Amino acid sequence: QVQLVESGGGLVQAGGSLRLSCAASGIPFSSTGMGWYRQAPGKQRELVAFISVGGFTLFADSVRDRFAISRDNNKNTLFLQMNDVKSEDTAVYYCAARNLNTLSTDPDRYDYWGQGTQVTVST
Prior knowledge:
The chain has 123 residues and is mostly beta strands. 0% of the residues lie in helices and 50% in strands. Strands 2, 4, 5, 6, 9, 10 and 11 form a 7-stranded mixed β-sheet that branches. Strands 1-3-8-7 form a 4-stranded antiparallel β-sheet, with no helix packed on it.
């Protein structure tokens, strides 16, 4: 059974930092492309960051230079370090796994999803 379990969300002040984690089980994590998506109320789900098996990373323009994505293949865990957060970063953040290691921004091309963790940025 595949499980992706996010944690680390919460309330943070604008300009602050937050670190999200995603614990994966039931998938060959070390050979799986992983992404972080987010969805704000009334908006479509959007890709925040992607990391390949080999460590290639891609970020949405809105978070580049503020967020970092990383993975610990020994612990089957994905991370999203969020720095200098802004009110527009408020959303539910989802961890997603893609059986193919290639990048995709289309959420329909991801095979597994976590339940999401809420991030709220206060101003």
